[in-house]
C-alpha cells in the first residue's frame, strides 16, 4: 500500500470511531473516551493502529501530525499512550512537512518535555524551531491576527530562553533578547513581553547598561495590560532591593497579585516562603496544596518541593512512596535539586550495598578462620568509607 492508502484506511477507521462515540456531535479525534465492544469498532481501532503508523513512518505529513499529537497528549481510546519519544519522532516529520501546529508542539516538547523512556529535551532544537516559526510567511487561509499571534509567541519564547542564559546559543543573549522584544513591540502589544523588557533593563547587556527607571516603566506598562509576570518580576525586584518596610510591602502585594492571577512562578515562590516561615499569609497545609497544583502543571521546582513535603511531612502526612514518585518526576522535568538528590541516594545505596557485602565477607572470613580474607574485606570497607567521605566533603 502507498502512504496515502495507509492514511485513507486509518482515516476511515477514525471516522467510524467518531460516529460510534460522538454521533453527529463536534469532536476531536484526539479526545479520550470509553471504548465500544462491537466487532466493527474493534476493526476500526485496529485499522487506525495499523495504518496510521505505517503512513507516518512513510513520511506522510498529515498522518505524522495526527500520530504525533496522539502521542503528545495520549489517547487511550485508540491505544496510543502518551510517549514523548514517539511524539518527538512524528511531530518532527510533520514539522519538516511545514505543519505549523506540529512545529509549535514540538518546540514546547523539546523545551519542557518530561525526560523518560529515552526522551531528552533539546533547548537548542527548541530555539531553532521557534526561530523557524518566527520567520515563516503567512499561509494561505491564515488570518492576519492568527499569523501575528503565532509569530509573536515564537519570538517571545526565543527571548525568554535567551534570558535563561543560553550562552551556548549566542555570545550576547541579553542584547539579542532585547532586539527580539523590540520586534514583538512592532507587531502587537503582548503584555508579558513588557515583563521581559523590564528584566532586560534591570540586567543590562554587552551594549547597554542597566536602567532601573526604564525597567520600572516596562513593568508598570505590562501590569497595566494585565501581565501576571510583570506583577511578579517587579514585585520580586522590590522585595529583593527594598530599603524600607513600605517598599517591601509594595513588592509583597505585587507578588500576591501575581499569585492571585495564577502565575506559576509566583505561586511556587509563595508556597516556599510559607514553608520557610518567611510568609505568614497561610499555613503549611496551604503551601502543600499550592505546590500540588503547580506540580500538576509539571513545574520542576514545585514537583521537587512537593517530594520534600511528603518526605518530611510538611503540610501533609509522611508518605515516602509519594516522595519517591514526585522526586523521580521532578528529575524527569529537569530539576537540578532532584537530579542531585537522586544521585546522592544512589551513591548511599551503593555504599550500603558494598558495606553489606563487607560485613558478610568479614563474618565468613572470621568464621572460617581466614584472617587474610577478613583483612582484605576490612581494607576495602575503609577505602569505600574514605571515598564517600571525600565525596561528601566536595559537595
Average residue-wise pLDDT = 85
Compressed to H and E, one letter per element, the order equals HHHHHHHHHHHHHHHHHH
User: Percent range for helical residues?
Assistant: over 70%
Distance between the termini: 59 Å
Number of helices, counting only DSSP H or I runs of 4 residues or more: 18
Radius of gyration: 27 Å
**Coarse shape:** globular
Main beta sheet: strand number and arrangement? none
Strand content: under 5%
Which structural class do the helices and strands define?
A: mainly alpha
Brief descriptors of the model:
395 residues; mainly alpha; 18 helices; 0% strand; disordered C terminus
How would you explain this protein's 3D organization?
The chain is mainly α. The chain is 73% helix and 0% strand. The protein has 18 helices and no strands. Helix 10 runs antiparallel to helix 11 and helix 12 crosses helix 13. The radius of gyration is 27 Å and the shape is globular. Residues 29-35 and 369-395 have low confidence and may be disordered.
Amino acid at each position: 500500500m502507498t502512504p496515502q492508502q495507509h492514511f485513507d484506511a486509518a482515516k476511515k477507521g477514525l471516522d467510524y470511531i467518531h460516529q460510534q462515540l460522538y454521533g453527529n456531535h463536534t469532536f476531536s479525534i484526539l479526545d479520550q473516551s470509553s471504548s465500544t465492544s462491537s466487532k466493527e469498532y474493534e476493526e476500526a481501532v485496529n485499522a487506525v493502529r495499523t495504518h496510521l503508523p505505517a503512513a507516518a513512518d512513510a513520511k506522510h505529513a498529515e498522518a505524522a501530525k495526527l500520530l504525533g499529537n496522539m502521542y503528545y497528549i495520549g489517547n487511550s481510546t485508540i491505544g496510543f499512550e502518551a510517549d514523548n519519544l514517539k511524539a518527538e519522532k512524528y511531530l518532527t516529520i510533520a514539522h519538516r512537512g511545514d505543519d505549523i501546529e506540529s512545529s509549535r508542539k514540538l518546540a514546547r516538547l523539546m523545551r519542557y518535555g518530561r525526560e523518560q523512556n529515552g526522551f531528552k529535551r533539546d533547548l537548542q532544537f527548541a530555539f531553532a524551531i521557534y526561530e523557524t516559526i518566527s520567520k515563516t510567511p503567512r499561509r494561505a487561509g491564515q488570518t492576519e491576527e492568527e499569523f501575528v499571534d503565532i509569530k509573536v509567541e515564537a519570538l517571545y519564547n526565543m527571548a525568554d530562553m535567551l534570558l535563561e542564559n543560553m550562552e551556548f546559543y549566542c555570545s550576547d543573549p541579553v542584547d539579542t533578547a532585547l532586539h527580539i522584544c523590540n520586534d514583538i513591540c512592532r507587531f502587537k502589544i503582548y503584555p508579558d513581553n513588557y515583563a521581559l523588557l523590564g528584566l532586560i533593563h534591570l540586567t543590562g547587556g554587552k551594549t547597554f547598561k542597566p536602567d532601573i527607571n526604564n525597567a520600572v516603566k516596562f513593568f508598570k506598562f505590562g501590569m497595566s495590560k494585565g501581565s501576571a509576570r510583570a506583577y511578579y518580576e517587579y514585585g520580586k525586584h522590590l522585595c529583593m532591593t527594598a530599603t524600607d518596610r513600605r517598599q517591601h510591602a509594595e513588592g509583597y502585594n505585587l507578588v500576591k497579585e501575581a499569585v492571585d492571577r495564577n502565575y506559576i512562578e509566583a505561586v511556587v515562590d509563595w508556597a516556599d516562603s510559607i514553608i520557610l516561615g518567611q510568609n505568614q499569609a497561610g499555613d503549611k497545609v496551604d503551601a502543600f496544596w499550592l505546590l500540588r497544583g503547580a506540580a500538576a502543571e509539571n513545574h520542576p521546582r514545585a514537583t521537587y518541593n512537593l517530594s520534600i513535603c511528603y518526605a518530611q511531612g510538611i503540610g501533609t502526612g509522611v508518605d515516602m512512596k509519594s516522595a519517591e514518585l514526585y522526586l523521580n518526576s521532578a528529575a524527569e522535568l529537569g530539576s537540578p535539586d532532584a537530579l542531585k538528590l537522586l544521585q546522592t541516594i544512589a551513591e548511599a545505596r551503593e555504599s550500603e550495598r558494598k558495606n553489606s557485602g563487607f560485613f558478610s565477607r568479614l563474618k565468613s572470613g572470621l568464621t572460617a578462620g581466614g584472617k587474610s580474607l577478613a583483612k582484605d574485606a576490612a581494607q576495602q570497607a575503609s577505602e569505600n568509607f574514605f571515598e564517600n567521605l571525600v565525596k561528601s566533603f566536595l559537595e
